[in-house]
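Continued from yesterday's entry.
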Amino acid sequence: MRVIICGAGRVGYGLAERLSQERNTVTVIDTSPDLIRQITNELDVRGVVGHGSHPDVLVRAGIRDCDMIIAVTYADEVNMMACQVAHSLFDVPTKVARVRAQGYLDNQWNDLYSRENMPIDIIISPEIEIGKAILRRLNTPGAFNVVPFGDGAVQMLGVEINEDCPIIQTPIRQIPDLFTGLHAAVVGIERDGELFAPTPDDPLEVGDRAYIVTQAAHSTRLLEVLGAHQIQARHIVIIGGGNVGTYVAEKLEGQSGMRVRIIERDKKRAEKAAEQLNRTVILNGDAMSAEIQEEAGVPNAEMVISLTNSDSVNILAAVQAKKLGARQTISLINEVSMQDMQSELGIDMVIDPRASTISSILRHVRRGRILEVYSLEQGGAEVIEGEVLDTSPMAGKALVDVAMGEGVAVGAIIADGAVLPPTPSLVLRPGNRVVLMAEKGALNNIVTMFRVSSDYY
């Protein structure tokens, strides 16, 4: 597949890296010669310096033979115009745009993106994706990550394994036998900085970060079994009243018993948030100030969520909140090197906005019948939901006979609406959905298994 990516920032770089590794032909456009020089030196991609919405620049990038354009520059208008030009002048089949401004995303303007007006096939809103990720974690206390699959029937939970876990040093194949009726498939373990797909005989160890696929209805019981279940936070302080903070506060207002306060340094932004929210208290002040945090009720807060545009503010505000007595903290952190400092700083959870955006785009980029994708640990592995087709090499075979290769662990099968555990004798049928984790080196084989062959048409 030939792909043009407009924007060589964090998201553009991550997409280019992933897609080029999967043997796609990738060209990246950016106005910065330095960013283009870096990306072409480090990745197997072409680079073009220029504006991604200019027709002549797009022609130099190969737009005439392009299968897909992905516009992820920092300017919404450039992203939207790049897709418009790609459609109107070059009839590019698939157009993806990242759009941040919520004013463009209001439901009343849905007709704007029709084929007759501004033909963008897929719109990605990082703010909404990040907001949803935060809300999932708040609604599933005890998990450091929660990702839905199977239209919400299945969840992947990220869980820290501590001394309270009763199944330490137990082979993971024995977990279903120890807890009757519990669906718990460990598909990934991060240990000593390395993420891998475990074999059925591998045990969990103290300090592991385990990725476990389960039925959504079993999530609470699974966390209780692992000794990780916590009481849901009801007193929440949000630092940053921008798009993400306002989105999260607005959704929390709809839940009974929630007390939410926002600290926002910018007066105009604070006033705008106050206009949008009904029951949330807005404080205009510097979240780095202990006095302001105390006024917002941070010492008694069950959760403090730092969502400003500055990594350093998000980190230091979370550290300050913990010092004042906040029970848990979540910080939005863009810089990967800073994310690695999470445990040393005492931050309970980190939100990586790039991972959320890349996962959303990959879901649409994958050819074949891959329905959902979530990237783990800076692309070290992916959790995938794929549909088995008649032409798939998996169709009609028992799981034990499917040649998925090393570095793959299956978490669940969805058949006719029922969620089934991945037993070796289970036969995969066309129409079944498979939720699995694949290490980076195993992705090509897995993507091929879900790919539509020429016989399908």
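--- second protein ---
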Amino acid sequence: MIDRNRCEGKAACVAVCPTRVFVIGVLPQEARGGLSLRGRLKGFAHGWKQALIAAPDACEACGRCVTACPEKAITLARRDAGSP
């Protein structure tokens, strides 16, 4: 899970992920509505570039992304077997 109010798209997660779960991309307009003022300011300042989860099923929960993220924007969360 990526905290959209914290992520600044620095790509540390992309660099350390052995299974290529993350990519850096532009946060879609529809995903910006719930951001805090600070999150909107950070997003604007960084051109809305953030880490996006491109391959969630590839995640092996190694935790390297959590450790590497300088903004502490990533947490690992269990998914229910029936969740997409």
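The two ends are 14 Å apart (CA to CA). The mean pLDDT is 93. Will compare against the first tomorrow.
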